[in-house]
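Handout for the seminar on molecular recognition.
Each group receives one record of this type.
Step one: identify the two inputs.
Step two: read the structure output and locate the region that could contact cytidine-5'-monophosphate.
Step three: write two sentences on what you found, then compare them with the reference statements printed after the record.
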Amino acid sequence: MRIIVGITGGIAAYKAPELVRLLVKAGHEVRCAATPHALEFVTRTTLETVSANPLYCDLFRGNATETEHISLKDWGEMLVIAPATANIIGKMASGIADEPLSTLLLAMPPQRVLMAPAMNSQMWAHPAVQRNLATLRTWGVRTIGPDDGDLACGSSGTGRMAQPEAIARQVASLLQQPHPLQGERWLVTAGPTYERIDSVRFIGNYSSGKMGFALAEALAEAGADVELVAGPSALRTAHPRIHRTDVESARQMYTAATEAFPACRGAILSAAVADYRPETCADHKLKKQGDQGLTLSLVQNPDILATLGTMKQAGQVLVGFALETDNELQNAESKLHRKNLDYIVMNSLRDTSAGFGVDTNKVTLLAADGQRTATPLLSKQEVARIIVETVTRHKE
Ligand code: C5P
């Protein structure tokens, strides 16, 4: 394939030659395009050497009859911007073309663009950047990262460019992407639920939603239309094939999930649903009563997974999660059968890098037919891909 790597002026530009090298090694023909600022961080010689092609960095270098941004756009099957600064994201969202790369971006169909944003975490969190990215995504631009970690400015947070290996893998999957799940609808539940105590307090848990959102992304990447029912979570959804419904409580999640399930080929329920909720919810803030304690009376929430297990029709696939602290395999297996599941994903809590909040996970996937797949500690994205590959291959 013919890939253009666009480089903008952020410190992560020093990783761009490595990305180019990986893409060349994977058999792609690569040409680089750089903004003037990018060349403060990485040299023309480096980019031309690793790509074995001339660099596009000057709107007016060619002869008057050649419009290089147009010929380059016809040449490239994909444009990967790595790193993508807040500036190039903003320029593309606004249609500004004031240097070679933004001009090329305006000529290129957005569906052929993959961006790997990299910036300081406060810049990343700025509403302008998030609004601009949301705009680009609605046009079909794909994004990867940024990752969490130490940043060049000395702070740490979200903003590091995704690793070149991860970007190269994403390019490979986008280019040859078979869409085995095209035409299939899948339901995913994700995140925690909040059970209200009064107008300002709730019972919740530490689930971040990262695993469920990664599952929704992996299903959408495989071509499925995804109904994502999400409990309270700060995470954003990127993929145009993900339809997200935000809920707060277990009962709201129950309603959304049971409504969506009949039209779905399958469901993966990864949400950490509260088993109990306060029997009553005060419509005002409860006041401290002298030095007395407070007793909350709790009632059981409906079990969404078990309900879908009773609704399941032939051909539908149902996948649950099990977070166990003791007798893990035995408990997971009994849940698999009790709730009429096809698979259960057992989270290991023995490893500090797996489970709630973190970016990695380590799971064992148990199938109703007795098959077991254990993963090593991987990113939640990788774990999601393995789960999706396994459960979507399921045949009656
Ligand atoms: O029985 P347990 O709560 O351990 O089962 C966990 C699995 O059940 C997870 O897949 C979770 O999403 C789902 N669940 C549910 N509704 C509940 C409780 C758990 O869907 N009320």
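Reference statements: Residues 2-175 form a domain with the Rossmann fold fold (CATH 3.40.50.1950). The chain has 13 helices and 21 strands.
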